[in-house]
Amino acid sequence: MAQPSPLQADLPSVLDRLAALRKDLPPTAKRIADFIIDNAAAVINMSVTEVADRTASSEGSVVSLCQQVGGRGFQQVKLALARDLVKPVQFIHEDVSPDDDAQNLITKVIGSAQQALEDTKKSLDPEKLKQAAEAISNAAQVEIFGIGSAAPIAEDAHYRLVRIGINARVSVDSHVQAVVASVSSPSTVVLTISHSGATVETLLATRLAKEAGARTIAVTNFGKSPILQFADIVLTTMARETMFRTEAMTSRIAQLAVIDTLIAAVALRNYDRSVDCINRTFEVLSSKRF
């Protein structure tokens, strides 16, 4: 069963969080989420009892949903809603259409990417980032898994880790992932990249790694997904999909940003070693340029 999001002192983008969770919620929680999304301004002035009455639910169900989006309770969610409404974010999640000219395409596609980065910045937990960097820095071996559109991100993470002196290996084949995961050990860290967190192959590999004793880190989109139950540390992105801009687009931009941040955090934990490795590899790569 998916675990609720970690509670946060500050709770940015609560409407985005509710929208991301909505599709995986049971009927009662989905009804509460829809009511809050559709009546955000009114909910600010309501009590938890009023929201429960208006949604034919219980006060406990309302509080439980608030905790799933990262809040301590209903009051914190109300404060977060008030902040969101006072300083509204300009959402650019429009889909492209056959009538769009080149300028509209530029505005929509690049605007959506910018929004994904901004939303990911708000959803990424600094404490989880710190834990992930520490785990990778202390690991004897780092295994990186990615399938489909996540495969290039996994390969980029591998390249970047090797360049700062981390003993890392990437697997983008599901059979190899399963084998590598099954022979992991407590000294291994597994970094799994999956936008949906529900891809069968990466779920299996992450579960096998956790069962073998490895420390598991998942880079996945905010929401409830099966991978959460197998991940010791979760680094969240916040990227919306539309008809023509599916997970191969904005999610990969958000994932790359999270990986960039993670690599920087790892490098800073052992600054001298990282700089030395970067310099040595730079000299090697320089010989390949004219």
Automatic annotation (TrEMBL):
Residues 132-272 form the SIS domain. InterPro entries: Homeodomain-like_sf, HTH_RpiR, RpiR-like, RpiR-like_SIS, SIS_dom, SIS_dom_sf, WH-like_DNA-bd_sf. Keywords: DNA-binding, Transcription, Transcription regulation. It comes from the Bacteria. Pfam families: HTH_6, SIS. Transmembrane segments: none annotated. Gene3D superfamilies: Glucose-6-phosphate isomerase like protein, domain 1, Winged helix-like DNA-binding domain superfamily/Winged helix DNA-binding domain. Residues 12-88 form the HTH rpiR-type domain. Coiled coil: none annotated. CDD domains: SIS_RpiR. This is MurR/RpiR family transcriptional regulator. It comes from Rhizobium oryzicola.
